[in-house]
User: What shape does this take?
Amino acid sequence: MPGNSRVKKVVVIGAGLGGLSAACRLARDGNRVTVVEKNAGPGGKVNFVSAKGFSFDTGASLVTMKHVFEDLFEYCGEDMADHLELVPLDPICRYFWKDGTTLDTSTDIRRTETAIAAFAPEDARALAGYLEASKKKYEIAQRTFLSRSLNDLPKLLTPSNLPDLFRISSTSTLDSYNSKYFRSSKIRQLFDRYATYNGSSPYEAPATFALIPHAEFGLGAWYPKGGIYGIPTGIEALAHRLGVEFRYSEPAEEIVIENGGVSAVRTSTGVLSADAVVANSDAVDTYRRLIPEKHRKKYTDEKLERIEPSCGGFVVLLGVRRKFDQLSHHNIFFSEDYRAEFEAIFGSLTVPDDPTIYVCATSRTDPTQAPEGCENLFILLNAPYTGVVDWEAEKERLADKVVGMLESFGLEGLRESAVYRETITPADFEKRYRANRGSIYGVSSNGILSAFMRFPNKSREIEGLYFAGGTTHPGGGMPLVLLSGKMAAELVSKD
Ligand SMILES: Cc1cc2nc3c(=O)[nH]c(=O)nc-3n(C[C@H](O)[C@H](O)[C@H](O)COP(=O)(O)OP(=O)(O)OC[C@H]3O[C@@H](n4cnc5c(N)ncnc54)[C@H](O)[C@@H]3O)c2cc1C
Assistant: This one.
């Protein structure tokens, strides 16, 4: 339960979900917490746009691991249900392939089996075993990586944990693991896709991530009524009730370090003294921009340059004045050559010729999100992080191409029924949220040891400096960044 021997002055840099989570917990523990945020409001990459009667979430669209969100409110003495209504989605997602095949996944495993059996009977029989193994992996992660900071690595590597860690670790990739279970290239592609839940490639990310399907099939896919942006605003309101001070439109410009430890944060308007600093800003950007190089032996500019970001995202927001009844809430329109797609994204850093397209139509389940008879389509491609593509020059052409591709998947009339269109590119994510090279999940998990390579929640070389957010342990995605905030807050309170 909350409790703290000494009240600390804590400055949190960034009001993304990781920062909000840390701020609430630290305030609940009795600390004096100030959040400085460069933008005008909370949420970071979880943001929104309203235009012409349409509402669009511009970042995250799928809520998994609902218990993590509930746990934050509970820790702070409140019931999330009093502030946020999360509704379960069934089907979880509708998948489309170019040959006309479609498939709905469901938390009702029998229903998913039946859907798979329609074109891949052997794979339908393999599903239950695959999901059982996924559950086991998830449970191991839950009691190791998801509940302990990497700063606790020595505690994680105890003889009692080692068998677990061997069971969950893997020297094979997610794709090769999936191909042992599933024969149909379509079903393999469907389960390979879970690598993108942390912005990685299934051909490089370890099979450890076969735990993610359990988070969706076993624990459910959720949607907060009124839109995803209700999550950061709901947590920000919780923070206000706990006494957290928010200073918006006030970027941090330097983490002031004296005698090897943090002493203050210099912002655009002044200096805030601090016993501890939690950086929710991208850790690469934080080191590079806010900490003079003389204070960082480990994270030199060259080392930071070598850290591979997760993929970026290319978003098209499309308000259309008609219904598309073939759409579900979440939809995936698959490419034909998945491997080529990831080779482009992470290899040549170019936009794939034939990208997989994700479409979220919250208007299918929430009429408040679009005018009557209309749909609010959030369209997302996994895209390379910045460096090669000239996004300003490419974005409209790419948006046209994506709309055309969706029309050939059967959404005829999409182009002519659009009354609102806006694009968001990796360059925008970089500029708006200072995400390293526009990555949307932080650091990539392309590598067998990637879980151990993330930024730890507490600096090992600067006293009083902590990290929360997608670039840090345990990783990107809303529930994991909430956990990173929890781990950072626990370390601050413990120290
Ligand atoms: C297009 C897209 C789709 C996604 N889909 C999903 C999904 O379906 N489900 C899911 O769970 N996750 C999804 N994610 C990932 C998820 O949104 C992120 O992992 C998560 O929101 C990141 O939170 P964070 O704590 O790392 O903070 P961020 O959102 O990165 O926020 C960091 C904050 O710090 C601020 N900041 C930076 N530098 C400074 C500074 N110097 N001073 C002050 N403030 C500063 C920024 O302005 C920002 O507000 C998606 C993300 C994107 C972009």
